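Q: what sequence does this backbone want?
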């Protein structure tokens, strides 16, 4: 009877704490919401509790390892790619933490389970203003490691001359080209030159773009930047 009450206590704590985490996710309309986080928490608690009941601490440790890897597969199911963007990483990480909360509850480490829940909620709520501030801050290209591309649109008959012009203009500005490709467009051909440099002076690259636009073989010119992780 004592063991049964301990199991019930662990499941109850996992249920309550999973509800707190899931409610925040549900409020923000995430893929894995209230019920998913609750089920992950109580499921992890139940599996770890089984391990403890059967073989003691060693069993709990072994089952916890399987819970960690198993929830990883569950989290992968909520990660989606939309174009160049990837969504669901934060939701997957939250599910992983819900499993850890359940594992703490299953091993009767209730204080640790409560502390972890508070940390998860703080990470998903209190850090949001800081994230918004960072995302809205202007990007200084000179301080970021990134991939820079110069794009030039030209006619089919002027591809070779425009291609040579792009390479010469960039090398004259001390921005060597690492790769150059051509892409067919409805209004002609687009030449995409990828720079070797991972940092540039915006004023210098803008000067190159203006010189390219002035060329007779060039219809339009621009440059883009893609930041790397």
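A:
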């Amino acid at each position: 009877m004592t063991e049964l009450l301990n199991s019930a206590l662990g499941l109850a704590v996992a249920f309550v704490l999973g509800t707190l985490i899931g409610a925040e996710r549900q409020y923000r309309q995430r893929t894995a919401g209230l019920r998913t986080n609750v089920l992950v928490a109580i499921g992890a608690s139940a599996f770890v509790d089984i391990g403890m009941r059967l073989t003691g601490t060693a069993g709990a440790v072994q089952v916890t390892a399987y819970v960690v890897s198993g929830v990883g597969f569950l989290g992968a199911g909520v990660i989606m790619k939309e174009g160049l963007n990837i969504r669901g990483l934060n939701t997957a990480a939250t599910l992983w933490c819900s499993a850890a909360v359940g594992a703490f509850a299953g091993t009767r480490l209730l204080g640790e389970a409560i502390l972890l829940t508070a940390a998860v909620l703080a990470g998903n709520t209190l850090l949001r203003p800081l994230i918004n501030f960072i995302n809205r801050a202007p990007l200084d290209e000179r301080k970021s490691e990134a991939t820079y591309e110069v794009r030039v649109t030209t006619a089919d008959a002027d591809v070779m001359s425009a291609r040579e012009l792009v390479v010469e203009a960039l090398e004259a500005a001390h921005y060597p080209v690492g790769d150059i490709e051509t892409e067919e467009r409805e209004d002609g051909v687009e030449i995409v030159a990828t720079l070797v440099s991972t940092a540039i002076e915006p004023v210098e690259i803008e000067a190159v773009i203006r010189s390219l636009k002035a060329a007779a073989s060039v219809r339009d010119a621009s440059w883009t930047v893609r930041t790397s992780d």
